[in-house]
Amino acid sequence: MGSVVLKNVCKSWGDVHVIRDVSLEIPDGEFCVLVGPSGCGKSTLLRMIAGLEEVTSGQVAINARDVTEVEPKLRDIAMVFQSYALYPQMTVRENMGFALKMARLPKAEISAKVESAAQLLGLEALLERLPKDLSGGQRQRVAMGRAIVRNPQVFLFDEPLSNLDAKLRTQVRGEIRELHRRLKTTSVYVTHDQIEAMTMGQMIVVLREGRIEQVGTPLELYDRPANLFVAGFIGSPEINQLKGEIRLGQGAPQLQLADGSLLGLPAGLEVSAGQHVVYAIRPEQVTVVDDDRQGAALKATVTAIENTGSDMQLFCETGGGAFTSVFKQRLEVREGETVWLLPKLSGIHVFDAASGERIACGG
């Protein structure tokens, strides 16, 4: 096993800058997820770790060894691709052992490694089948088995679940988590799906336009997003965002919404009168009350209701724009009704509207 360290890594194609001065340290044994929207550079960064893309500038190190100029096959990594990349004419056994055969390992050793990986992944009964006779989930497990038999220092996963349906994604996601728990091999996993990132990652790296926006545990990113981009990207349903202007009085600051209504803010915010901010709160961080609670609650008109069985979602229109709330209880409300939504003070995030950066509380 080994750590992965990137120092001031950049990647450009001519005047197009894909990765911009990225520095990152992934500790030994960590499961790190690179997440971000399409085109943010996450797959390019993974391929640079693998050696499949040249580094324009900067350094890549695996287990304290500089591998920036080292060939992929000599980096002691194994990669699992989105497309499975199995040889169609080879059996599962042959696919899983092919890299070991090319490395000229003894047949008995190859067989033992393949059998061990097959047992780990529940593939024992499929070893003599061809890829065309397997389901999508089985093919992906074979691709993982091919990586496991090499016993690499680092596993690299490039959106491995994208070709699977929703039910299979959930199943294989759990299998990858269990695999990491048992093998404890450093893993770097690329996805555009923030649900995958939240449920799989011990460490999440949020990327945008080739830069790192924030690094942290899933709950750190969810509870304390560094900026509006991270707040909006992490979480489903998406965090509510209301634009407004700061009003200061003798008590805590207030937010003046577009319709002139006022909404309470946490005390101690480092803000100035007239400052334009974005008030953000997650859909589950509100309750329904019967009045404005002395200016602390948000007046809302219900525009749509969705019941999923376990949850009830209210889609509303407020003085600051659209607002979504999620409740475990089933409320007696109807479309067109007016309700008061009381945000939990501990769940309120405030960001500067110009920079998008989080505004801290003083003291």
UniProtKB/TrEMBL annotation:
The keyword Transport applies. Residues 4-234 form the ABC transporter domain. It comes from the Bacteria. Keywords: ATP-binding, Nucleotide-binding, Transport. GO terms for cellular component: ATP-binding cassette (ABC) transporter complex, substrate-binding subunit-containing. One of its GO terms (biological process) is carbohydrate transport. GO terms for molecular function: ABC-type transporter activity; ATP binding; ATP hydrolysis activity. This is Carbohydrate ABC transporter ATP-binding protein (CUT1 family). It comes from Enterobacillus tribolii. The lineage of its organism: Bacteria, Pseudomonadati, Pseudomonadota, Gammaproteobacteria, Enterobacterales.
